[in-house]
Design brief:
Helix content is 33%, strand content 21%. It has 9 helices and 16 strands. The strands form 4 sheets. It has an 8-stranded parallel β-sheet with strand order 3-16-15-10-9-8-7-4. The radius of gyration is 18 Å and the shape is globular. The two termini are 31 Å apart. The chain binds oxonic acid.
C-alpha cells in the first residue's frame, strides 16, 4: 500500500497537499473548510499589519489554461490570523502555516516579532513575491533587499521560517537568490513559485483586459506556469540541499503533484485549481497521486523525491 506521510521541520502531514497562500484562506470560514478538507496542512492568506480591502474588482479571472489575479493583498490584518492560530488545536489537528507579507520592512519586523512572541507551533512563510501592489516591486527580485530583510527578520523571529519566492528565469538569478538564502540559517524552506507576475489576459470579443487593477496586469497561475514552477523547484532543491522546497504552480492532478516531488519538492501547494474546483480537488489529487505511485511501484514519497532523471 502507498503511504503519503511527510514529516518535515517538526510537523507531520498525512499527505503532501497544502492550499497555496491566498486561495480559500482569507477568513476563518474558509480556513475551517480547508481544515475539514483532504489537505495535509493549511496556510493562511498573506497578512499585513493592518486589514486591507485590496485592489478594485474585477481582480481575478480564470481562463482555459489557468488564472490571472491582482488581488492586492486583501486580508483581515495579522492579528486576525494570529488569533486563529492561538485558538487552533495544533496538537491534534493538521499543521497550520502562516503567510506574512508586510508592506514595509518595519511592518514585516513588527509582525514577525509578534509571531515570535506568540511562540505558536506554526510555520511562517514570509512572502517576498506579491506582484500586485501598484508601485511596489517584488522584493524577491532585489537580492540585496531580500538579504537585508532576512537578516533583520532572523533577529526578531528566532525559529526556522520559510520564504515564498517569485519565479526566476535565469540560472544566474537562481544562483544569486540561493546564495542569499544559503546565507540565512533561519530559512528552513522555500516555496517556489508565486504567480508569474504582470501577465496580460485579453478578452478577444470585448477587445478588453479582464481585470481592473494595473490596466489588466496580474499574476498568472495554472497550466501556464507548470514548467517554470518545476524549474524553480528543481534548481532551488539542488542549490539548497539542507532546506525543504515547497512546490507550487500548475498542480491540478496527481500527475503535476508527482512531477513537483520528483523535481525535489518535500510537499506541494495547490492554487488556481483549488480556487476553480473547490476543496474536493484535494481529495481527487491525493487519490490520483496514490494511483500514480501504485502504477509506478512506489510506496512512499521518499522513494522518488528529487529523483528526476536527466539525459
Ligand atoms: O503574493 C501574491 N501573489 C498573488 O498572485 N496574488 C496575491 C495578491 O495580489 O494578494 N499575492
Amino acid at each position: 500500500t502507498v503511504d503519503l506521510a511527510v514529516a518535515w521541520l517538526g510537523i507531520q502531514m498525512d499527505n503532501p497537499l497544502i492550499n497555496a497562500s491566498g486561495v480559500m484562506c482569507r477568513t476563518v470560514e474558509e480556513l475551517e473548510a480547508l481544515r475539514h478538507s483532504a489537505a495535509g496542512a493549511l496556510i493562511t492568506k498573506s497578512c499585513t499589519l493592518e486589514p486591507r480591502k485590496g485592489n478594485p474588482e474585477p481582480r481575478y479571472a480564470s481562463t482555459a489554461l489557468g488564472s490571472i489575479n491582482s488581488m492586492g493583498l486583501p486580508n483581515a490584518g495579522y492579528r486576525y490570523y494570529l488569533d486563529y492560530a492561538r485558538r487552533y488545536d495544533h496538537e491534534h489537528d493538521k499543521p497550520l502555516l502562516m503567510s506574512v507579507s508586510g508592506m514595509s520592512l518595519e511592518d514585516n519586523l513588527e509582525m514577525m516579532a509578534a509571531f515570535d512572541e506568540a511562540a505558536l507551533p506554526v510555520l511562517v512563510e514570509l512572502n517576498l513575491s506579491c506582484p500586485n501592489l501598484p508601485g511596489k516591486p517584488q522584493i524577491g527580485y532585489d537580492f540585496e533587499a531580500s538579504a537585508r530583510l532576512l537578516a533583520e527578520v532572523s533577529k526578531v523571529y528566532r525559529r526556522p521560517f520559510g520564504v515564498k519566492l517569485p519565479p526566476y528565469f535565469d540560472p544566474v538569478h537562481f544562483g544569486e537568490m540561493a546564495d542569499v538564502l544559503d546565507g540565512c540559517p533561519s530559512i528552513g524552506f522555500v516555496t517556489c513559485i508565486n504567480s508569474i507576475g504582470n501577465g496580460l489576459v485579453i478578452d478577444l470579443e470585448r477587445e478588453s483586459v479582464v481585470i481592473r487593477p494595473k490596466d489588466g496586469l496580474g499574476g498568472i497561475g495554472g497550466d501556464y506556469v507548470l514548467p517554470t514552477a518545476l524549474a524553480n523547484v528543481r534548481e532551488f532543491a539542488r542549490r539548497l540541499p539542507g532546506r525543504h522546497v515547497i512546490g507550487c504552480g500548475g498542480i491540478r492532478s496527481g500527475r503535476e503533484a508527482f512531477m513537483h516531488i520528483l523535481a525535489g519538492a518535500t510537499v506541494v501547494q495547490v492554487g488556481t485549481c483549488l480556487y476553480e474546483e473547490g476543496p474536493a480537488c484535494l481529495t481527487r489529487i491525493r487519490d490520483e497521486l496514490v494511483c500514480l505511485m501504485q502504477d509506478k511501484g512506489y510506496r512512499t514519497l521518499a522513494d522518488f523525491r528529487g529523483c528526476l532523471r536527466t539525459l
